[in-house]
Amino acid sequence: MTNKSRALVFPPAPPAHPLEQLRQFTSARIALHRTGDSLPTEELLDFGLAHAFARDAVHATFDTKAITQQLTAAGLTCITIESASPDRATYIRRPHLGRKLDEASRQRLTSLNLPTNPEVLFLIADGLSPIAPQRYAVGVIQATRHLLLDWDIGPVVVAEQARVALGDEVGEILKADMVVTLIGERPGLSSPDSLGIYLTYQPKVGRTDAERNCISNVRAEGTSIEQAAKTLHYLLLQSRQLKLSGVNLKDNSALPPPLPLADPSPSGNTAIQ
User: Fold this and answer.
1) Is 153 contained in some domain?
2) Sign of torsion over alpha carbons 153, 154, 155, 161
């Protein structure tokens, strides 16, 4: 009996997905092929890896020492505080504790003798992705500070185990006109390091999310540091002028400036220039 070599026969490649070209514009999971009733092995492994990155981001260590060193090198004074959440596990299970200060931090802020009430106060918080503020927060503050030449800016507060609303209590204690909280957003399966920026006018305990403005998705693959700083600068100027923030404060920074009003003509009528 003789063995005859047989050529391997592979199944034909699946046809191109009709949305395949859109994948070059987004990291979202679109145009996924199927293998029978399941995803292809490559797509399944990619999903598992992205899920692992998201989980790691939530539990990452927030290196407050490195951030304070960056702030000091940039010529900014800073103070570190902690929320009432004693550890990461409690922070995740009991979100309300991340929205208020622990007693030691409250006393530390109360004892500060600021020469004036700051017009704006920056707060860097770990949130649900400590790697996000670690990578982008100081850069956003530096870029924004260069646009706020005549503003009274308070010390940068670095908060651990913090939620967005912690900035309300901090801003109220330090009597700031506005507080800007830079915090790690909840990781997505394609964005584990997304930074969110929240602006609140006249912060005080009890402010709602409707009273804040948000700039989201600040990261290398999303909103750039420069664009975030420009948008934040616009919102700060408008907030100071209109004395509000939240749903009534719109980001119209991308709109063209209004046309100038026409000068009155000698006859008393106005003419369009």
Assistant:
1) yes
2) negative
Contact 140, 228 (CB under 8 A): yes
Cα-based distances in Å from 46 to 9, 12, 53, 160, 190: 28, 23, 11, 31, 10
The pTM score is 0.84
Residue 32 lies in a domain: no
**The length of the chain, given as a count of residues:** 273
- Residue ranges of the alpha helices (H) in the chain? 41-58, 64-73, 88-93, 103-110, 131-145, 166-173, 225-242
User: What tens-digit pLDDT sequence spans the chain (273 residues)?
Assistant: 555 566 777 667 666 777 778 877 877 777 787 777 888 888 888 889 999 999 999 999 999 999 999 999 999 999 999 999 999 999 999 999 999 999 999 999 999 988 889 999 999 999 999 999 999 999 999 999 999 989 999 999 999 999 999 999 999 999 999 999 999 999 988 899 999 999 999 999 999 999 999 999 999 989 999 999 999 999 999 999 999 999 999 998 877 766 666 655 555 454 443
Beta strands in 185-232 (DSSP E): 195-201, 212-218
Q: What is the amino acid identity at position 18?
A: P
Identify the CATH number of the domain in which residue 212 sits.
Answer: 3.40.50.11240
Q: Answer whether residue 25 is part of any domain.
A: no
Distance of alpha carbon 82 from alpha carbon 76, whole angstroms: 20
Q: What span, in angstroms and rounded, lies between the C-alpha atoms of 57 and 185?
A: 10
Number of domains within the chain: 1
Measuring CA to CA, which residue among 198, 191, 189, 179 is closest to residue 217? Answer: 191
Q: How do 195-201 and 212-218 pair as beta strands?
A: antiparallel
